[in-house]
User: Which sequence fits this backbone?
């Protein structure tokens, strides 16, 4: 599924971290991470999205502190502003957030790193829809790196405390 998503990508980014624990705990920690400054960035995003006249300007970060057992893998289920489009328990979770200007995909992949450790990869794929998507992606790209790395650290911390 991931290779298919990357075929027409305008942007691909991968952040990888290693630690203990499982995919559910990592995903719950990463997707539930919403420090005050990220909430502020999403408020700024709302203003910017309105200027670009996107269809969904008011998305919010995080999933409000989900527990690992609440992470769905069934396509069509929701996690915050993401929709699950695929997944395999313990292996990967693939999410989508689409708007009139951009289709964004986030894959969280868990690989055995040996020695009882797991390598968690957070892969972001974006496809722009027209000029508004290209402008949006250009503006948010520097912030994206900081946010996804923060999500990865939060997921790692959560997976270290939950099997």
Assistant:
């Amino acid at each position: 599924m991931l290779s298919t998503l990357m075929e027409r990508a305008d942007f691909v980014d991968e952040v990888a971290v290693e630690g203990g624990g499982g995919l559910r705990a990592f995903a719950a920690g990463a997707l539930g991470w919403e420090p005050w400054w990220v909430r502020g960035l999403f408020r700024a995003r709302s203003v910017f999205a309105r200027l670009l006249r996107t269809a969904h300007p008011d998305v919010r970060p995080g999933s409000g502190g989900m527990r690992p057992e609440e992470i769905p893998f069934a396509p069509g289920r929701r996690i915050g502003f993401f929709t699950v489009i695929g997944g395999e328990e313990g292996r990967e979770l693939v999410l989508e957030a689409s708007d009139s200007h951009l289709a964004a995909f986030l894959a969280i992949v868990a690989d055995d790193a040996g020695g009882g450790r797991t390598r968690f990869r957070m892969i972001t794929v974006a496809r722009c829809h027209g000029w508004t998507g290209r402008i949006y992606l250009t503006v948010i790209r520097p912030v994206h790196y900081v946010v996804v790395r923060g999500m990865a650290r939060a997921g790692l911390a959560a997976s270290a405390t939950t099997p």
The CA atoms of residues 13 and 145 lie 8 Å apart. The longest strand covers residues 102-114. The mean pLDDT is 84.
